[in-house]
Amino acid sequence: MPRRALGVCWFAVLAVVSLIAATARAQGFANQYQEKLPGPPDALPAPPKPVRYVMTISGGISLGAYEAGFNWTLLRHLKRHRAVAPGSDLAPLELVAATGASAGNINAFLTAVGWCQTAAFDTQETPSNNLFWQAWVPIGLDELFLGPGGAYAKDDGLLARSAFTDIKKKLAGATATAGRFDPTCRLPIGITVTRNKLGNLVLNDSGGSGPGLQIATQRFVVTMEAHASPQGLAFIERPRGCDDPAVGQYLHLPGAAGTQLPIETVLGLVEASSAFPLAFGSKRVNHCAHGDKRDPLCALESEAPSADAFFDGGVFDNVPLGLGVSLAMPRKPRACPTDHDLYIGRGQRVAANGQGEPVTAGAKVDASVRKRSREDDGIATGAANERVDIADRG
Predict the structure, then answer these.
(1) Quick check: pTM over 0.90?
(2) What is the C-alpha to C-alpha distance for residues 318 and 188, in angstroms, rounded to an integer?
(3) I need a surface site. Which of 123, 141, 148, 357 has the fewest CB within 10 A?
(4) Is the pLDDT assigned to residue 168 strictly greater than 90?
(5) Largest pairwise CA distance in the chain
(6) What pLDDT score was predicted for residue 225?
(7) Which residues contact 8 (CB under 8 A, 6 or more apart)?
């Protein structure tokens, strides 16, 4: 077996050990604070609430190959414990969002495909035969570096994107495979990109009473949802009411609101986000920008189609933890309904129910979930009057 293949497999094995230990702690925490059914003292307790996870995958160039082994193993573990037997005291596990930066965006996309895939297709996979493996391991320097006189494309850098032709076809084919996905599956996804030129991020929390604060930025995010159906897996841009300017300027794509994005557009965004400077050239992305007249290709009357060059999404935020929080716990929950309980990395558990009341014991603080959970992410933002508990998971 090639050395790089062994690296992925060993990493996956180590991931299993650490994941089982972490899950045991999480389930013990959930069981400790589960609600009791009213009734006599010997009544059975209520089923534990699901332990919800947001997966945020950092960038790191070739580190993505090792992350891929971990992601594949993690998904199989989460899905195995997605449902529990009646009467079990184990908490079911649920993935509520996936985000990534740079190489991590590739794995975030693959995570959506793997999470929504049915158990029948899961059983056909092995550590060396799955989409994560196929996206990373067979592609090496021989395929990427064409050398002097090589057939480089105009948007290539030192390395050629032609190495990804086969895997892009496989991914497009997989998402279009009838019967491959659970029709009930939905998963929000966040992609980060960096634009070659500055844009303006407008912060206006005054209810529209003024022009707001304009900040120059090159950091952009695209948010979408993977929607499974009997025909395949579709990707749809999230409603504009979900936009949270605290995580960056949103890049909105052409097309009517709620329509399916072409898979070529989605894979193009993944390519743009993973375009590590010098190694790969920037990628032009069609989007909707502020315009003077109505254009049918864009959802808003004040927008018109535009195209700009974008590259590595990890330049300004290589661990988009805040973006993951915004997907799971939106600033405007009425305009963008979602679950409000989640587990998030770096040793903290952040939990609140839809009414903002504490659902676990621990050190109680009156603060924004986003502000507290993003302190490690270098993002300071505010949200209104949410009471949350933060407990150290060790």
Answers:
(1) no
(2) 19
(3) 148
(4) yes
(5) 81
(6) 95
(7) 65, 66, 68, 69, 127, 133, 136, 137
Q: Which residues pair with 284 in a beta bridge?
A: 309
Helix (H, G, I), strand (E, B) or coil at 22: helix
DSSP annotation of 252: B
Per-residue confidence (pLDDT) for residue 334, from 0 to 100: 67
Q: Say which residues have a Cβ less than 8 Å from residue 125's Cβ, sequence separation at least 6.
A: 72
Structure-model confidence comparison of residues 210 and 268, the more confident one: 268
- DSSP per residue over 117-170, as a string? B-HHHHTT-BTTBSHHHHHHTT--HHHH---TT----TTB-SS-GGGGHHHHHH
CA–CA gap between residue 364 and residue 390 (Å, rounded): 7
Pick the range with the lowest mean pLDDT from 83-97, 122-136, 166-180: 83-97
- What is the Cα–Cα distance from 133 to 339, expressed in whole angstroms? 31
Helices 63-80 & 3-32 angle (0-180, nearest 10): 40
At 336, give phi and psi (nearest 5°): -145, 75
Three-state SS at 110: helix
Residue 194: what are its φ and ψ, rounded to 5°? -120, 130
CA distances (Å), origin 66, targets 117, 129, 214, 258: 22, 15, 39, 35
The single residue listed with the structure tokens 């989605």 is: 266
Tell me how far apart the alpha carbons of residues 75 and 187 are, in angstroms, rounded to a whole number.
Answer: 13
Q: Decide: helix, strand or coil at residue 177.
A: coil
- Token pair listed for 193: 């990109």
pLDDT score for 338: 57
Pairwise CA distance, residues 34 & 40, whole Å: 17
% of the chain at pLDDT higher than 70: 69
pLDDT tens, residue by residue, 222-248: 999 999 999 999 999 998 888 887 888
Residue in the structure block whose two tokens are 């209810």 = 207
Query: Is the confidence at residue 282, as pLDDT, over 50?
Result: yes
Rounded CA separation 319/378 (Å) = 10
